[in-house]
Inverse folding.
């Protein structure tokens, strides 16, 4: 997994901060034009062939951060026009992802390569185990015939010197459902009919060619227009900042939000309802129920494992219940969910109670632009304190545990966790789907599925290392109600 601390992420976050500052100064339309040249000055060493190519890619990144699809890119159109359209936009547009052609490296197809660590050993396990017999030793080194190779990887697995390596296409490799492939020019394309919006491609592309379309401009506009904007932050967001309880609420207040809701409150509602639903399903003879809070997982089932459709919990997500509560308390409020997830943007568009969805990157940029240091914020007294189990929804295994502590007879529950929907996770899912279709009992009767390894704290739009976030989440969750 590509670490969050990398150059591509740094560029994307810097653009967010610059856009937020310009908008807050009332200078977005005039100032946006200068972002590419300021970030790629003429005397700088270019990443690509020249500084002008760098600026063109930065221009595309700005367009995506303004909330536009780069597939509709017009090189004759000024950035000021894109900014103007963003400011006039009434609601976010789909899809949530966009591919930057100019940033895409057009990686060659995934293949295996013999390095100079090869010793041309007598054992020659690479040759002996190759099912296509496409390896030969010439010039004192093994060579792979690329036309005959089927990329099985047995040569790499059997080389005692680790002299054979795999050259992947990171975005294709990361996609668990085969939604990414090359076009006739070798550039990557996303099939949105297959895509689950898990965000793995966006996280793993080392060139930052896969980008989410930010809604930060839209939210700042509502704040500056004096609208009553409410923040609803997921437990995973609390794990992104080294903050004490109540400090995030204070930070959102400084940023101009009228009210802040902890989405862990909605998680408690989800857990209560899923526990009740589990008991009802088992009473009527169902063999399996899966959790439903991860929208990337739910979409994966609908598209790729429809056999499991009837097993997915009918209970809505914590985001939905929190937004419904916010809407009930103030029907005119602008509701903004804040989380680490790309798929939540899709869920937000489909949920009438959710107006906008910001990422950890977005809200981090807003705090920087406004000069808000969360650590220096005086904590506010919380009106409602969620449970520890509700706050633990953000980690893998947390949802299943929250349901377990709420069912009347915990011994009846046999939980299992699919920790990440990579290729292996999708295979596990398919096995559960097959069992459900055949009506066969499974080893588990409650399956929690998280699209991201480690849970939401490792989402595609986080700003903190997952291990650090896990420690922070543990501290945060411990202050919840038992």
């Amino acid at each position: 997994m590509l670490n969050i601390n990398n150059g591509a992420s740094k560029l994307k976050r810097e653009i967010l901060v610059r856009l937020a500052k310009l908008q807050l100064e009332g200078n977005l339309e005039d100032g946006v034009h200068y972002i590419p040249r300021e970030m790629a000055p003429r005397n700088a060493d270019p990443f690509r062939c020249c500084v002008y190519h760098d600026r063109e890619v930065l221009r595309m990144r700005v367009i995506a951060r303004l909330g536009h699809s780069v597939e509709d890119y017009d090189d004759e159109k000024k950035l000021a026009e894109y900014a103007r359209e963003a400011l006039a936009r009434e609601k976010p547009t789909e899809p949530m992802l966009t591919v930057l052609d100019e940033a895409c490296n057009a990686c060659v197809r995934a293949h295996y390569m013999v390095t100079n660590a090869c010793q041309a050993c007598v054992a020659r396990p690479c040759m002996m185990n190759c099912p296509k017999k496409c390896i030969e030793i010439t010039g004192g080194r093994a060579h792979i015939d690329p036309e005959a190779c089927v990329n099985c990887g047995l040569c790499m697995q059997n080389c005692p010197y680790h002299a054979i390596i795999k050259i992947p296409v990171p975005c294709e490799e990361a996609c668990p459902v085969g939604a990414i492939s090359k076009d006739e020019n070798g550039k990557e394309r996303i099939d949105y009919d297959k895509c689950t919006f898990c965000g793995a491609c966006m996280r793993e592309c080392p060139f930052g060619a896969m980008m989410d379309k930010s809604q930060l401009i839209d939210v700042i506009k509502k704040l500056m227009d004096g609208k009553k904007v409410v923040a609803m932050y997921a437990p995973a967001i609390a794990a992104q900042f080294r903050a004490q309880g109540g400090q995030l609420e204070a930070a959102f207040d400084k940023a101009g939000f009228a009210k802040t809701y902890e989405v862990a409150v909605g998680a408690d509602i989800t857990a209560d309802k899923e526990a009740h639903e589990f008991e009802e399903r088992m009473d009527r003879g169902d063999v399996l129920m899966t959790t439903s809070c991860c929208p990337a997982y739910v979409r994966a089932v609908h598209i790729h494992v429809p056999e499991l459709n009837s097993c997915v919990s009918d209970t809505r997500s914590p985001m939905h219940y929190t937004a419904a509560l916010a809407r009930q308390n103030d029907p005119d409020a602008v509701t903004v969910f804040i989380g680490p997830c790309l798929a939540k943007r899709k869920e937000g568009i489909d949920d009438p109670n959710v107006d906008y969805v910001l990422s950890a990157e977005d809200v981090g940029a807003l705090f920087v632009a406004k000069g808000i240091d969360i650590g220096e914020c005086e904590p506010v007294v919380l009106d409602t304190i969620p449970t520890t189990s509700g706050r633990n929804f953000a980690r893998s295994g947390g949802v299943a545990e929250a349901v377990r502590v709420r069912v009347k007879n915990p011994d009846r529950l046999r939980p299992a966790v699919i920790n990440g929907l990579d290729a292996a996770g999708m295979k596990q899912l398919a096995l559960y789907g097959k069992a459900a279709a055949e009506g066969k009992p499974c080893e588990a009767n409650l399956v929690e599925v998280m699209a991201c390894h480690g849970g939401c704290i490792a989402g595609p739009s986080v700003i903190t290392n997952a291990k650090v976030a896990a420690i922070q989440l543990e501290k945060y969750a411990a202050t919840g109600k038992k």
